[in-house]
Amino acid sequence: MRDVDIFDRRYFCCTIAGLAINIGLANLAMGVEHRPRMPAGNREFVIINGWVLIGEDVAASEMTPNVV
Amino acid sequence: MLFDFNDAWPRVAEGRYEFCICGAGPAGITIARKLAANGKKVLLLEAGGLTYSEESQNHYEGKNVGRPYWLKQLRLRYLGGSSNHWGGVCTLQDPISFEASDDLGLPGWPISYEQVIRDLHEAKEILDVGDKDLSASKQPGFMSPLFDRFGHAQSPPTHFFEKYGAELRQSRQIDVFYNANLNDLTLSDNLTQVKNIRVQNYNGHNSDVIASQYVLALGGIENVRLLLNANRQVPAGIGNHSGMVGRCFMESLDVPIGRLLLTDTEFWKIDKLDLVPSEALMRDNKIGSGVVTFTPHLSASGALEHGGRLRVLKEFIHQTGCYWPALTELARRIVDFDCPGDGVVSSTIEQEPNPDSRVSLTNDIDSFGLRRIQLNWQLCDRDLKTIRVLSINSAQEMARLNRARVQLAPFILDTNLEIPATGFGHHMGTTRMSADPRHGVVDENCRVHGIQNLFLAGSSVFPRCGGRNPTLTIVLLALRLGDFLSSRG
Question: How many folded domains does chain B comprise?
Fold first, then answer.
């Protein structure tokens, strides 16, 4: 078995990408429960935890939280 | 010529002066120079010395019974006055502030905006700000119908005695006495003119000064203190016929509105964005004016100070469940590592004239025998409404135009919470200008109602403050008063 160089650029990038995906999934799970239901394309303002958002910022359904 | 009143106190009574000006800050020095330029003989008195001293500054100690305030720290008592710690922002009052408004309960400016800005070019030269246009304009990339870009210029800042000290020392028209503390005014028997004033040095020597015209340019708090202390002949104090001396103390309200997450890298290549409300926004909501400032953190130092580059972004995602624009923001930060990602939102908000917000006297006496100040600084419901409407509307415009997302502080959205507004050291409104003596202390020429030869200068005469830095308007009004006095002498 060959040695793994943890400072190898490809290995390092893959590790970071894997971490990012995991963090993203964790954040997704946290975020869905807070998310109000707003139709896509909505330009109304909505305030969540003090953040002033427009309807397009927030999700259209629980399964598609990143609708623009 | 420049004299130390501690040593040269007998000399002040030898001079024959047409004008006596008390207070050598921006207003007093400007009026003195204007009068001298018109060939008038002027006596300029300053209570403090050449530089800061605790002995002088301690006379600003007072009692605070209202909102938290720093009576001693937010003004300076030596030659040049508070210009010695001035930040240098020069701006004009909002023109809408000069319109009659029935919903304030008190009349506004009795003079027009055009009358105030008549000497704008000269005032800009005095304050070293060149000829920059100071009117509000549209910010490129932020075409909002509700907000315009704040028009202002930055002075070096001008410290008045540093700039004009040499001129005052050499002047044949102006005699400046420092360490000269005004401690009383005496009226004529019919109470319509100032007969003389009494000045005291730090060694206990007094001297009476006689001039044809007198100007108090002591600042928005000390003008009140002197008028109320001068109560030997008029028990309520000079000029206090309607009980208005000291009332309507106003500040520029310093309110931390919240924080922002940037969503447009290109747009935020500007250092910061200062927004002022449009006239339509103010009229429709019956609110005052102000300036809302969006300041991105500098990427390197700011990130360390504020808990890391991604802290606000992570909190945004967690608190809102929104990944757009958050994910695009994350991608941007990976690509453009050195750009700022978040920042703070602050504001300077207009306080309305409120008679319950007032300066009065305590029974505590200082070493000159003057009763000290008591400040009861209060906000009214309209002030709170102005803060909240400007905060929410500016945050909405940021989101609508996709330049940033703003998280408002809890006290903006929850009206049950107290807004932690502080002040900038702008003391205004306490001897307000009004054509009607019932509603003010001075007339449209800054003359105390009922006293023919006593004038007040500085921001104490502002009937409205407009949510703007006051120094340029102080200088403009001083030039106007200087011209008026020249025509009388």
Answer: 2
Half-sphere exposure of A19 (CA within 13 A, CB side): 6
Q: Residue B125: is its pLDDT beyond 50?
A: yes
Structure tokens at B31: 């009026």
Q: Are residues B127 and B92 in the same domain?
A: yes
Q: Do B157 and B282 belong together in one domain? A: no
Chain A residue numbers touching B409 (CB-CB < 8 A): 50
Backbone angles phi, psi at A17, to 5 degrees: -65, -40
Buried b (16+ CB within 10 A) or exposed e, B387-406: bbbbbbbbbbbbbebebbbb
Q: Mutate one of A27, A51, A62 to test the B interface: name it (highest B CB count within 10 A).
A: A51
Same domain, B236 and B299: no
pLDDT in tens, A17-28: 888 777 766 665
B377 inside domain:
no
For A48, name the nearest residue in chain B, comparing CA atoms only: B320
Rounded to the nearest angstrom, the minimum Cα separation between A3 and chain B is 30
Per the structure, the complete domain to which residue B201 belongs is given by: 2-142+151-251+426-488
| Tokens, residue B279 | 């006239």
Dihedral sign for Cα atoms in the order B322, B325, B331, B333: negative
Bin B255: left if φ > 0, else alpha if -120 < ψ < 50, else beta: beta
Q: CA of B395 to nearest chain A CA: how many angstroms apart? A: 6
